[in-house]
Amino acid sequence: MTLQQLRYLIAVSEYGSINAAAHSLYASQSNLSTAIKELERELDVTIFTRSNRGVTLTNDGAELLAYARQVVEQADMMEERYMRGRSKRRQLAVSTQHYYFSLQAFINVAESCASEQYDFTLRECATGQIVEDVHTFRSDIGVLYLDNFNTSVLRKAFDNADLSFSPLFNASVHVFVGEHHPLAGKASVSLKELEPYPRYSFEQGPASSFYYSEEPFGYLPCDRNIRFTDRGTLTNLLTSFNGYTVSTGVLSSEMHAGIVAIPLQVDESMQVGYVMHKQRRPSDLLLSYIEELHNVIAENPTVDPL
Protein backbone atom coordinates (compact mmCIF):
# COMPACT_ATOMS: atom_id res chain seq x y z
CA MET A 1 0.00 0.00 0.00
CA THR A 2 1.36 3.42 -0.94
CA LEU A 3 0.36 7.03 -0.29
CA GLN A 4 -0.12 7.43 -4.03
CA GLN A 5 -2.67 4.62 -4.09
CA LEU A 6 -4.54 6.26 -1.21
CA ARG A 7 -4.49 9.63 -2.98
CA TYR A 8 -5.91 7.95 -6.07
CA LEU A 9 -8.61 6.31 -3.96
CA ILE A 10 -9.62 9.66 -2.47
CA ALA A 11 -9.72 11.37 -5.87
CA VAL A 12 -11.80 8.65 -7.51
CA SER A 13 -14.30 8.68 -4.63
CA GLU A 14 -14.68 12.48 -4.88
CA TYR A 15 -15.15 12.55 -8.66
CA GLY A 16 -17.17 9.34 -8.92
CA SER A 17 -15.23 8.46 -12.05
CA ILE A 18 -11.75 7.10 -12.71
CA ASN A 19 -11.54 9.10 -15.92
CA ALA A 20 -12.48 12.39 -14.22
CA ALA A 21 -10.07 11.73 -11.33
CA ALA A 22 -7.26 10.94 -13.77
CA HIS A 23 -7.94 14.17 -15.66
CA SER A 24 -7.81 16.22 -12.45
CA LEU A 25 -4.54 14.58 -11.38
CA TYR A 26 -2.94 14.79 -14.84
CA ALA A 27 -2.48 11.03 -14.69
CA SER A 28 -3.49 8.26 -17.08
CA GLN A 29 -6.74 6.44 -16.53
CA SER A 30 -4.95 3.11 -16.77
CA ASN A 31 -2.54 4.05 -13.95
CA LEU A 32 -5.42 4.95 -11.62
CA SER A 33 -7.40 1.85 -12.54
CA THR A 34 -4.36 -0.37 -11.95
CA ALA A 35 -3.56 1.29 -8.63
CA ILE A 36 -7.12 0.79 -7.35
CA LYS A 37 -7.20 -2.86 -8.48
CA GLU A 38 -3.84 -3.54 -6.78
CA LEU A 39 -5.11 -1.94 -3.59
CA GLU A 40 -8.27 -4.07 -3.70
CA ARG A 41 -6.19 -7.19 -4.26
CA GLU A 42 -3.72 -6.36 -1.50
CA LEU A 43 -6.44 -5.64 1.09
CA ASP A 44 -8.82 -8.32 -0.21
CA VAL A 45 -11.79 -5.93 -0.43
CA THR A 46 -13.92 -4.51 -3.20
CA ILE A 47 -13.59 -0.73 -2.92
CA PHE A 48 -15.80 0.36 -5.81
CA THR A 49 -18.68 -1.06 -7.79
CA ARG A 50 -18.27 -0.10 -11.44
CA SER A 51 -20.92 0.75 -13.99
CA ASN A 52 -21.34 2.74 -17.21
CA ARG A 53 -22.15 5.80 -15.09
CA GLY A 54 -18.92 5.66 -13.07
CA VAL A 55 -17.94 4.10 -9.75
CA THR A 56 -19.63 3.92 -6.35
CA LEU A 57 -18.05 3.14 -3.00
CA THR A 58 -18.97 -0.15 -1.35
CA ASN A 59 -19.41 -0.29 2.42
CA ASP A 60 -15.86 -1.63 2.74
CA GLY A 61 -14.70 1.13 0.40
CA ALA A 62 -16.33 3.85 2.49
CA GLU A 63 -14.63 2.52 5.62
CA LEU A 64 -11.28 2.35 3.85
CA LEU A 65 -11.75 5.87 2.50
CA ALA A 66 -12.11 7.26 6.02
CA TYR A 67 -8.81 5.64 7.02
CA ALA A 68 -7.15 6.77 3.78
CA ARG A 69 -8.08 10.40 4.41
CA GLN A 70 -6.59 10.22 7.90
CA VAL A 71 -3.34 8.70 6.63
CA VAL A 72 -2.96 11.20 3.79
CA GLU A 73 -3.84 14.11 6.04
CA GLN A 74 -1.23 13.07 8.61
CA ALA A 75 1.35 12.58 5.86
CA ASP A 76 0.62 16.04 4.47
CA MET A 77 0.98 17.62 7.91
CA MET A 78 4.30 15.83 8.44
CA GLU A 79 5.48 16.99 5.04
CA GLU A 80 4.45 20.55 5.79
CA ARG A 81 6.17 20.46 9.18
CA TYR A 82 9.53 19.06 8.09
CA MET A 83 9.96 19.95 4.41
CA ARG A 84 10.23 23.68 4.99
CA GLY A 85 11.80 24.54 1.67
CA ARG A 86 8.91 23.13 -0.29
CA SER A 87 5.96 25.30 -1.34
CA LYS A 88 2.70 24.06 0.16
CA ARG A 89 -0.83 25.13 -0.68
CA ARG A 90 -2.98 25.78 2.37
CA GLN A 91 -6.20 23.78 2.33
CA LEU A 92 -9.62 24.22 3.91
CA ALA A 93 -12.86 22.40 3.13
CA VAL A 94 -16.20 23.35 4.70
CA SER A 95 -19.57 21.63 4.37
CA THR A 96 -22.49 23.68 5.64
CA GLN A 97 -26.21 24.14 5.66
CA HIS A 98 -27.24 27.23 3.73
CA TYR A 99 -26.11 29.95 6.16
CA TYR A 100 -24.67 33.29 5.10
CA PHE A 101 -22.39 33.50 8.15
CA SER A 102 -20.65 30.25 7.05
CA LEU A 103 -19.93 31.88 3.70
CA GLN A 104 -18.85 35.20 5.22
CA ALA A 105 -16.41 33.49 7.60
CA PHE A 106 -15.07 31.48 4.66
CA ILE A 107 -14.53 34.66 2.64
CA ASN A 108 -12.79 36.33 5.57
CA VAL A 109 -10.32 33.44 5.84
CA ALA A 110 -9.70 33.46 2.09
CA GLU A 111 -8.99 37.20 2.17
CA SER A 112 -6.51 36.70 5.02
CA CYS A 113 -4.62 34.26 2.78
CA ALA A 114 -4.64 36.52 -0.28
CA SER A 115 -0.84 36.51 -0.61
CA GLU A 116 -0.46 32.73 -0.16
CA GLN A 117 -1.16 29.63 -2.23
CA TYR A 118 -4.34 27.89 -1.16
CA ASP A 119 -7.01 25.44 -2.24
CA PHE A 120 -10.33 26.12 -0.47
CA THR A 121 -13.71 24.38 -0.88
CA LEU A 122 -17.14 25.46 0.40
CA ARG A 123 -19.99 23.00 0.00
CA GLU A 124 -23.52 24.18 0.76
CA CYS A 125 -25.22 20.82 0.92
CA ALA A 126 -27.81 18.57 2.53
CA THR A 127 -27.55 17.67 6.21
CA GLY A 128 -26.77 14.00 5.59
CA GLN A 129 -24.01 14.99 3.17
CA ILE A 130 -22.45 17.27 5.79
CA VAL A 131 -22.20 14.37 8.23
CA GLU A 132 -20.75 12.12 5.52
CA ASP A 133 -18.25 14.74 4.32
CA VAL A 134 -16.83 15.29 7.80
CA HIS A 135 -16.88 11.58 8.65
CA THR A 136 -14.84 10.70 5.54
CA PHE A 137 -12.47 13.68 5.99
CA ARG A 138 -13.70 15.18 2.72
CA SER A 139 -14.42 18.34 4.73
CA ASP A 140 -12.61 19.69 7.77
CA ILE A 141 -15.78 20.98 9.41
CA GLY A 142 -19.57 20.96 9.00
CA VAL A 143 -22.03 23.65 10.07
CA LEU A 144 -25.64 22.75 10.97
CA TYR A 145 -28.32 23.18 13.64
CA LEU A 146 -30.02 21.17 16.36
CA ASP A 147 -33.41 21.59 18.01
CA ASN A 148 -35.63 19.54 20.30
CA PHE A 149 -37.04 17.57 17.36
CA ASN A 150 -33.85 16.48 15.60
CA THR A 151 -31.30 16.37 18.44
CA SER A 152 -31.58 12.70 19.39
CA VAL A 153 -31.40 11.50 15.77
CA LEU A 154 -28.56 13.79 14.71
CA ARG A 155 -26.49 13.19 17.82
CA LYS A 156 -26.77 9.45 17.18
CA ALA A 157 -25.60 10.10 13.60
CA PHE A 158 -22.68 12.14 14.99
CA ASP A 159 -21.71 9.30 17.33
CA ASN A 160 -21.88 6.72 14.52
CA ALA A 161 -19.68 8.98 12.35
CA ASP A 162 -17.23 9.70 15.21
CA LEU A 163 -18.05 13.42 15.16
CA SER A 164 -18.18 15.98 17.96
CA PHE A 165 -20.64 18.91 17.99
CA SER A 166 -19.68 22.38 19.25
CA PRO A 167 -22.40 25.07 19.59
CA LEU A 168 -21.96 28.52 18.08
CA PHE A 169 -25.19 30.33 18.99
CA ASN A 170 -28.82 29.97 20.01
CA ALA A 171 -31.54 31.66 17.98
CA SER A 172 -35.29 31.98 18.28
CA VAL A 173 -37.20 30.63 15.29
CA HIS A 174 -38.15 33.18 12.62
CA VAL A 175 -40.16 33.18 9.42
CA PHE A 176 -38.73 34.78 6.25
CA VAL A 177 -41.22 36.36 3.84
CA GLY A 178 -41.04 38.95 1.09
CA GLU A 179 -41.73 42.55 2.09
CA HIS A 180 -45.00 42.48 0.07
CA HIS A 181 -46.25 39.29 1.75
CA PRO A 182 -49.62 39.68 3.57
CA LEU A 183 -47.88 38.78 6.87
CA ALA A 184 -44.87 41.07 6.37
CA GLY A 185 -46.13 43.83 8.68
CA LYS A 186 -46.87 41.61 11.69
CA ALA A 187 -44.74 41.74 14.83
CA SER A 188 -44.93 37.93 15.08
CA VAL A 189 -46.82 35.09 13.41
CA SER A 190 -48.27 31.75 14.47
CA LEU A 191 -47.98 28.40 12.74
CA LYS A 192 -51.72 28.60 12.05
CA GLU A 193 -51.28 31.86 10.13
CA LEU A 194 -48.71 30.20 7.84
CA GLU A 195 -51.02 27.39 6.73
CA PRO A 196 -52.50 29.16 3.65
CA TYR A 197 -49.06 29.85 2.14
CA PRO A 198 -46.49 27.71 0.28
CA ARG A 199 -43.54 26.47 2.35
CA TYR A 200 -40.00 26.76 0.94
CA SER A 201 -37.33 24.32 2.09
CA PHE A 202 -33.93 23.03 1.06
CA GLU A 203 -34.06 19.65 -0.66
CA GLN A 204 -32.21 16.93 1.28
CA GLY A 205 -31.50 14.38 -1.45
CA PRO A 206 -31.54 10.59 -1.01
CA ALA A 207 -31.10 10.88 2.77
CA SER A 208 -34.21 13.05 3.05
CA SER A 209 -35.85 12.88 6.47
CA PHE A 210 -37.84 15.26 8.65
CA TYR A 211 -34.98 14.97 11.13
CA TYR A 212 -32.47 16.16 8.51
CA SER A 213 -34.51 19.17 7.42
CA GLU A 214 -32.77 22.56 7.54
CA GLU A 215 -36.01 24.23 8.64
CA PRO A 216 -37.65 23.75 12.04
CA PHE A 217 -41.19 22.33 11.96
CA GLY A 218 -40.54 20.75 8.56
CA TYR A 219 -42.41 17.68 9.83
CA LEU A 220 -45.71 19.58 10.03
CA PRO A 221 -48.07 18.86 7.11
CA CYS A 222 -48.26 21.47 4.36
CA ASP A 223 -50.39 21.29 1.21
CA ARG A 224 -47.94 23.27 -0.93
CA ASN A 225 -44.20 22.64 -0.73
CA ILE A 226 -41.41 24.00 -2.91
CA ARG A 227 -37.95 22.46 -2.46
CA PHE A 228 -34.68 23.75 -3.91
CA THR A 229 -30.93 23.42 -3.45
CA ASP A 230 -29.41 26.93 -3.30
CA ARG A 231 -29.87 30.18 -1.41
CA GLY A 232 -30.23 32.20 -4.61
CA THR A 233 -33.42 30.34 -5.49
CA LEU A 234 -34.78 30.95 -1.99
CA THR A 235 -34.18 34.69 -2.31
CA ASN A 236 -35.99 34.80 -5.67
CA LEU A 237 -38.94 32.81 -4.32
CA LEU A 238 -39.33 35.00 -1.24
CA THR A 239 -39.24 38.25 -3.21
CA SER A 240 -41.45 37.01 -6.07
CA PHE A 241 -44.14 34.86 -4.42
CA ASN A 242 -46.20 34.70 -1.21
CA GLY A 243 -44.47 31.74 0.37
CA TYR A 244 -42.30 31.50 3.47
CA THR A 245 -39.39 29.65 4.99
CA VAL A 246 -38.43 29.05 8.62
CA SER A 247 -34.91 29.73 9.89
CA THR A 248 -32.72 31.51 12.45
CA GLY A 249 -33.74 35.05 11.60
CA VAL A 250 -30.19 35.87 10.44
CA LEU A 251 -30.56 37.50 7.03
CA SER A 252 -27.74 37.28 4.50
CA SER A 253 -26.55 40.43 2.72
CA GLU A 254 -28.40 39.54 -0.49
CA MET A 255 -31.62 38.95 1.47
CA HIS A 256 -31.77 42.27 3.30
CA ALA A 257 -33.42 43.99 0.32
CA GLY A 258 -37.04 42.92 0.01
CA ILE A 259 -37.15 40.21 2.71
CA VAL A 260 -38.50 40.41 6.26
CA ALA A 261 -37.69 38.19 9.26
CA ILE A 262 -40.65 37.75 11.65
CA PRO A 263 -40.49 35.90 15.00
CA LEU A 264 -42.53 32.71 15.08
CA GLN A 265 -44.84 32.26 18.09
CA VAL A 266 -43.32 29.03 19.40
CA ASP A 267 -41.24 27.99 22.38
CA GLU A 268 -38.76 26.17 20.14
CA SER A 269 -35.24 27.52 19.62
CA MET A 270 -32.36 26.54 17.34
CA GLN A 271 -28.79 25.81 18.37
CA VAL A 272 -26.42 26.28 15.45
CA GLY A 273 -22.95 24.78 15.70
CA TYR A 274 -20.28 22.81 13.91
CA VAL A 275 -19.16 19.18 13.76
CA MET A 276 -15.61 17.92 13.42
CA HIS A 277 -14.16 14.42 13.30
CA LYS A 278 -12.93 13.40 16.73
CA GLN A 279 -9.67 12.16 15.22
CA ARG A 280 -8.96 15.36 13.29
CA ARG A 281 -6.22 17.61 14.54
CA PRO A 282 -7.39 21.11 13.55
CA SER A 283 -4.97 23.10 11.42
CA ASP A 284 -4.23 26.77 12.07
CA LEU A 285 -6.42 27.55 9.06
CA LEU A 286 -9.35 25.59 10.45
CA LEU A 287 -8.97 27.33 13.80
CA SER A 288 -9.00 30.67 11.94
CA TYR A 289 -12.26 29.68 10.24
CA ILE A 290 -13.87 28.79 13.58
CA GLU A 291 -12.70 32.12 15.00
CA GLU A 292 -14.22 33.94 12.02
CA LEU A 293 -17.52 32.11 12.56
CA HIS A 294 -17.62 33.50 16.09
CA ASN A 295 -16.67 36.99 14.86
CA VAL A 296 -19.38 37.10 12.18
CA ILE A 297 -22.01 35.76 14.56
CA ALA A 298 -21.08 38.30 17.26
CA GLU A 299 -21.98 41.10 14.83
CA ASN A 300 -25.60 39.93 14.57
CA PRO A 301 -27.96 41.22 17.29
CA THR A 302 -30.69 38.60 16.72
CA VAL A 303 -28.74 35.64 18.07
CA ASP A 304 -27.26 34.53 21.39
CA PRO A 305 -23.54 33.68 20.81
CA LEU A 306 -22.13 30.80 22.88
Describe this structure in words.
With 306 residues, the protein is of the alpha/beta class. It has 10 helices and 13 strands. It has helices at residues 3-15, 18-25, 29-43, 59-82, 100-112, 127-135, 151-160, 191-194, 231-240, 284-298; strands at 48-51, 54-57, 90-96, 118-124, 141-146, 163-172, 174-178, 199-202, 225-228, 245-247, 259-263, 269-277, 304-305. A 6-stranded mixed sheet has the order 4-3-5-12-6-13, with helices on both faces. Strands 10-7-11 form a 3-stranded antiparallel sheet. Strands 1-2 form a two-stranded antiparallel ribbon. Helix 1 packs across helix 2 (18-25) and helix 1 packs across helix 4 (59-82). The longest helix is centred in the first third of the chain and has 24 residues, at 59-82. The protein is globular.
- Using the CA coordinates, give the radius of gyration: 21 Å
Q: Describe the largest sheet.
A: 6 strands, mixed
CATH homologous superfamily grouping of the domain at 170-268: Periplasmic binding protein-like II
Instruction: Please report which band the strand proportion falls in: under 5%, 5-15%, 15-25%, 25-35%, 35-45% or over 45%.
Output: 15-25%
CATH topology of the domain at 170-268: D-Maltodextrin-Binding Protein, domain 2
Shape category: globular
Through-space gap between termini: 44 Å
Under the CATH scheme, the architecture of the domain at 170-268 is 3-Layer(aba) Sandwich
Q: In the CATH hierarchy, what is the class of the domain at 170-268? A: Alpha Beta
Overall pLDDT level: 88
Structural class: alpha/beta
H/E element sequence: HHHEEHEHEHEHEEHEEHEEEHE
Number of strands: 13
Q: Total number of helical segments?
A: 10
Considering DSSP H and I runs of 4 or more, what fraction of the residues is helical? 25-40%
Main sheet strand line-up: 4-3-5-12-6-13
Low-confidence stretches: none
